[in-house]
Design a protein that fits this description.
- The protein has about 280 residues and is mainly alpha-helical.
- The radius of gyration is 19 Å and the shape is globular.
- α5 crosses α7.
Length: about 280
């Protein structure tokens, strides 16, 4: 893939104005703040932390568990979409690849531990599929100049996403979207974690726990090493959804997992908050 093209796709996908639905999610930050964990690590612990330090601590823990639980699904969905596009004109392979995506989505649904996270993931997944099928489709005045191939893998993927938009979770949709746009798996993984971290900082600004300048400070000096570290740690993880009997895949070592139980507990209590501005 041409590096200039990849750079352009990265610019498009990192645009904060993209209608991806991330502005409605805080990844559990709102519940974390409301339950009093933002100011101090424990009621009898050290003095209240600086807001930049507290935000960094939350992003670090949240990003670590998200990378371990979501990146395996991003990777497998990305590779399934690559197989779909490499098998142009082969109906059996195309149907198999689309079936793999559905199987990944069902597995992610089963492995997501709380209803709040499932709801937010589906909401953002639907937004990504809508963006792919409508926002990134070829404009009509250009389509009329070229012959449309309704049997192409791209057309098949768009039909599949329109047919079942309510069943696909964010990591699977992200893997499908970036692979369909020609973004490499490594870039897809890194950008997904970066956008996850950026959305947390955006939520922090809206919650007034961090100012816009402080958020930019963290983006420049803190977020990059965190994203790089988590990408390097989880880039080779897979879901193991197509294991064969003699496969030596160890899901404990190489599979998805949740690494921050406190975050899960606080996230599931989000709907119990007296007032809230996010849906997760």
């Amino acid at each position: 893939m041409d590096s200039d093209y990849e750079a352009y796709i990265l610019l498009l996908l990192s645009d904060g104005n993209l209608p991806t639905g991330s502005f409605v999610a805080s990844a559990g930050l709102e519940s974390y703040v409301t339950h009093g964990f933002f100011a101090s690590s424990s009621p009898s612990g050290p003095p209240p932390r600086d807001n930049l330090d507290a935000t960094t601590a939350f992003v670090r823990d949240s990003l670590a568990t998200y990378a371990r639980s979501a990146l395996p699904f991003v990777s497998d969905a990305h590779q399934a979409t690559e197989r779909l596009f490499s098998a142009a004109g082969t109906d059996d392979v195309q149907e198999g690849a689309l079936g793999d995506m559905k199987a990944l989505d069902d597995l992610y649904e089963a492995m997501t531990l709380n209803h709040v996270a499932r709801r937010a993931s589906k909401s953002q997944g639907v937004a990504l599929l809508t963006l792919y099928s409508k926002g990134f489709s070829r404009p009509s005045f250009l389509s009329s100049q070229t012959q449309s191939d309704s049997s192409s893998p791209d057309a098949g993927t768009r039909r599949e996403t329109r047919a079942a938009p309510n069943a696909w979770h964010l990591p699977i949709c992200w893997g499908v979207l970036t692979s369909a746009l020609g973004l490499s798996l490594e870039r897809s993984q890194f950008l997904h974690l970066f956008l996850q971290a950026r959305s947390i900082l955006s939520a922090s600004v809206r919650l007034n726990t961090l100012g816009p300048y402080g958020a930019q400070q963290l983006l420049l000096h803190v977020i990059r090493p965190l994203v790089e570290a988590e990408t390097a740690r989880c880039k080779d993880l897979r879901t193991g959804y197509k294991r064969i009997p003699d496969d030596d895949f160890d899901e404990t070592v190489s599979g998805p997992a949740t690494t921050w139980p406190l975050g899960e507990i606080l996230a599931v209590r989000h709907d119990l908050l007296h007032s809230r501005i996010f849906n997760s």
